[in-house]
Amino acid sequence: MGRSNFLTTLLSLSLGVILFSGNIATAQLRTNYYANTCPDVENIVRRAITTKFQQTFVTVPAVIRLFFHDCFVSGCDASTIVASTPGNKAEKDHPDNLSLAGDGFDAVIKAKAAVDAVPKCKNKVSCADILALATRDVIALSGGPTYPVELGRLDGLKSTAESVNGNLPHPNFNLDQLNKMFSSRGLSQADMIALSACHTVGFSHCEKFSNRIYNFSRQKPVDPTLNRQYATDLQRMCPRDVDPRIAIDMDPTTPRQFDNAYFKNLVQGKGLFTSDQVLFTDRRSRNTVNTWASNPKAFNDALIEAMTKLGRVGVKTGRNGNIRFDCGRFN
């Protein structure tokens, strides 16, 4: 066999192993995964998350962002929850993750404690699965759709800050950049747009979008796609000398409701980030925005599909993971 043919064959076999492993991981996921080991796990998690939700609404965007950041970096393996140690700077301490609200971590830790308080369930349910369930629950608690959650993820065995580099979308991304990053995780443009709508809840610090409302030489919006009145409102809430502690709602209309207002806002030029507004300004994604702005059921259906597919990214199985006793540290 010639060298070129040998390399081609080797590459094909390697790719086959990768695809086969991915199929095994996806096949492991099922809604009744804990039917024998912890049959009431969903109710246990839901009660814990409901209690946390009643304490603070921040739980909603905090848990959703934690799930997204976790899945996008190393796969859905709860590696973002692991705390740094003197010998290892973990994912959660990377600059792109420092804005993750503590209530998201706290919600998962408390739900894990509630699960482990049941003798039959103790150390039987992964932190990764608890995070996936918690995400579904906070979406439903804030008015969004509920949906069946596939379970069977193991927790990751490593967490490094370096792994975050270049693996999270940024507020200034254009459509091509967004599609490329989501596509690399098996997510379509429609999935990306649906997941972007999670910005219908939560807040952002002024520094993340100040370039859109100031050119720092004249008092006018830099970004012409920004609604003028909305720009004025943002300038009032975020002074020129940006205080990084100032945070505003990402959805100016229904910030405490998980709904399709995100798309209605985009139609009106009220997308907070460049990566939000581009979904309407770019003709390739505009029709989807218009459809979901007027059809909440279509959006909910798309969101469920997108969240399910997101939950399949980078699932750990076999020797690639375990069930952590403490979500914040390795066993």
TrEMBL record:
Cofactor-binding details, from the entry: Binds 1 heme b (iron(II)-protoporphyrin IX) group per subunit.
Known catalytic reactions: 2 a phenolic donor + H2O2 = 2 a phenolic radical donor + 2 H2O
Cellular localisation: Secreted
SUPFAM superfamilies: Heme-dependent peroxidases
Biological function: Removal of H(2)O(2), oxidation of toxic reductants, biosynthesis and degradation of lignin, suberization, auxin catabolism, response to environmental stresses such as wounding, pathogen attack and oxidative stress.
PROSITE patterns found in the cross-reference section: PEROXIDASE_2, PEROXIDASE_4
Keyword Oxidoreductase: yes
Boundaries of every Plant heme peroxidase family profile domain copy: 28-331
Protein name as catalogued: Peroxidase
Signal sequence, start to end: 1-27
Assigned EC number: 1.11.1.7
Pfam families registered for this protein in UniProt: peroxidase (PF00141)
Residue ranges crossing the lipid bilayer per the database entry: none
CDD domains reported in the protein's UniProt record: secretory_peroxidase
Keywords linked to the UniProt accession: Calcium, Disulfide bond, Glycoprotein, Heme, Hydrogen peroxide, Iron, Metal-binding, Oxidoreductase, Peroxidase, Secreted, Signal
Keyword Nucleus: no
Source taxon at top rank: Eukaryota
Family under the similarity heading: Belongs to the peroxidase family. Classical plant (class III) peroxidase subfamily.
CC cofactor: heme b; Ca(2+)
